[in-house]
Amino acid sequence: MDIVLIGGLWLDGSAWDEVVPELRALGHRPVPVTLPGQGDGSVSATLDDQVAAVLAAVDAASGRPMVVGHSAACTLAWLAADARPEQVAKVALVGGFPAADGDRYADFFELKDGAMPFPGWGPFEGPDSADLDEEARLRFAAAAIPVPEGVSKGVVRLTDERRWDVPVVLVCPEYTPAQAQEWLDAGDLPELARAKHVDLVDIDSGHWPMMTRPAEVARLLAEAAAETGS
């Protein structure tokens, strides 16, 4: 199965470099996406540009792909399901949840010179970064790509209710499936609360498991792909 891989804020397609060979070994075709404004040199990219790049990968896939979003890019994966509900076989959300219609995409941190740079490790102290040693933190920060304002402040638009028919697997890294279920039950995750099929799976990692637990990420994604019946 083709598996489209979308990294979160400040990441390009290389975020999945250690997951890609593991998925190939498990019989799948990984398709890591380098998003406009996050690795292609563009500083004026918009959220619409990023959605278009994801949809291009979906449209180029062989058969019906699974679309994987990490962190903020869980919204991009969900936007793909909204735009291609009959084409996306499953959505996998790693360490994040889709924004609702009308929300800003990722208006989380201060802008500088028209982009949102990595804010340092302060906001991510604790479970998010507990499995990253100092060397890994330095590498991450050095490679982090400021996210253009047109992306971070882009408004999410969801239009097709058939997105709720697309199966979802929620991969829970720095929080547990039990915590995620509590948020679902409390109505804190409105898009997922209306999804008709949501599975929750655990991974013992921080917020970036594709870097710290790549083999396990690949295994979980391969299991999710197998369950689609494709």
From TrEMBL:
Q: Which UniProt keywords apply?
A: Hydrolase
Question: Which part of the chain is the AB hydrolase-1 domain?
Answer: 3-219
Q: Name one GO biological process term.
A: acylglycerol catabolic process
Domain of life here? Answer: Bacteria
Q: Which GO terms describe its molecular function?
A: monoacylglycerol lipase activity
Q: Name one GO cellular component term.
A: membrane
The record, for PANTHER family, names:
MONOACYLGLYCEROL LIPASE (PTHR43798), MONOACYLGLYCEROL LIPASE ABHD6 (PTHR43798:SF5)
| Record's protein name | Alpha/beta hydrolase
Question: Source taxonomy lineage?
Answer: Bacteria, Bacillati, Actinomycetota, Actinomycetes, Streptosporangiales
